[in-house]
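User: structure tokens for this one?
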Amino acid sequence: MDIEASRHIAPCTVDDRIRHAWDAERSLDASTLHAMLQGGHIVLTGDVGCHSDRATAVGLVEQCAPMTAIENRIVVRGYDCDPQESDATVRARVVEAIAVAVPEADSVDVRTLDHVVTIAGTISSEAERRAAHAAAARCPGVHFVVDRLTVD
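Assistant:
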């Protein structure tokens, strides 16, 4: 089988299906999430930025493995935001974090309003998109990331 053909094969294990679902969800920073099958149930670990991300992660697992018990150990990171900090300061921090995480992503536009960051532009791969999203989401001062990146 050639490499191109193998890219289109559906994930075959529950772990693979979960990772694929998490990675496909544009609004979810799943960079620290893990799923393990233990004693007939799925154990979820890692951290997310908000309660809705936690619910999204669990909901995707329920779709991937219906009728399987889930032990949810995903924690929500503390809100690291100083309301007095300017959007310009937060934006500068995000621009730097994305440059470090994805050095090739020189055409990413970063806008910040009330600690909500919007990232837009064209990026080379889905992996780079996820890395840029995660870098932005984990910056101090960021409350939420709106991901409008497109993969070219």
